[in-house]
Specification:
Number of helices: 2
Distance between the termini: 36 Å
Number of strands: 12
Radius of gyration: 20 Å
Strand content: over 45%
Helix content: 10-25%
Order of helices and strands: HEEEEEEHEEEEEE
Largest sheet: 8 strands, antiparallel, barrel
Strand order of the largest sheet: 1-4-5-7-8-9-10-12
Length: about 190
């Protein structure tokens, strides 16, 4: 009898799923910051990032997210133009606040789509030492680990960041930026 109960419990556990821990895989992940200026549009690529996730999969789909974060090192944001990189580091106060972080707080809903699963989430985004609540709609795919793709747009000034200027104020950066991400987590 005890053996049968144990077998039934194991089958139920397998059917329901359990949280598994994943690490951000840098080689297959991208985070880009896009913005405008009076001279041209610009993009910063995150070359240094890390993160962890605790996700429950059931039947190859995300059933729940227990924890998830990603961290981008400010000095790892590269435009491949040294002047812009320096202005970015200064504007984001990289010496006092070396990281931009996102910390997942909750799942609002999960819906199956043709592209994967649309997961509406709430979390906290910290930039230059200022933390704000954000809502992100992400597409999740579970082919090799778990991948989350999405974007968010906001004003730098909302985080106390003064948009950079160059050439004695003749080139001004727009206040609004978009962060686009495709972050992959694996065991």
């Amino acid at each position: 009898m005890k053996k049968q109960i144990l077998i039934i419990a194991c089958m139920a556990w397998a059917a329901i799923g359990w949280s598994q821990d994943y690490q951000l895989r840098k080689t297959n992940s991208t985070v880009k910051v896009e913005g405008t200026s009076t001279l041209h549009d610009w993009t910063l690529d995150a070359e240094e990032m890390s993160g962890k996730a605790g996700v429950t999969l059931t039947d190859g789909k995300v059933a729940s997210i227990e924890k998830l974060n990603f961290i981008v090192k400010v000095e790892g944001l590269k435009s491949h133009k040294s002047g812009m990189d320096k202005n970015t580091n200064e504007a984001l106060k990289s010496e006092q606040h070396p990281n931009i972080t996102y910390e997942f707080a909750r799942v609002i809903s999960i819906t199956d789509t043709k592209d994967g699963q649309l997961i509406k989430t709430g979390g906290r985004l910290t930039i230059a030492g200022v933390t704000k609540s954000v809502y992100l709609d992400v597409i999740a795919k579970t082919t090799d680990g778990v991948a989350f793709q999405g974007s968010t747009t906001f004003k730098m000034s909302d985080y106390g960041v003064k948009p950079p200027v160059a050439l004695m104020g003749t080139v001004k950066t727009g206040d609004e930026v978009t962060i686009k991400f495709n972050v992959n987590y694996s065991k």
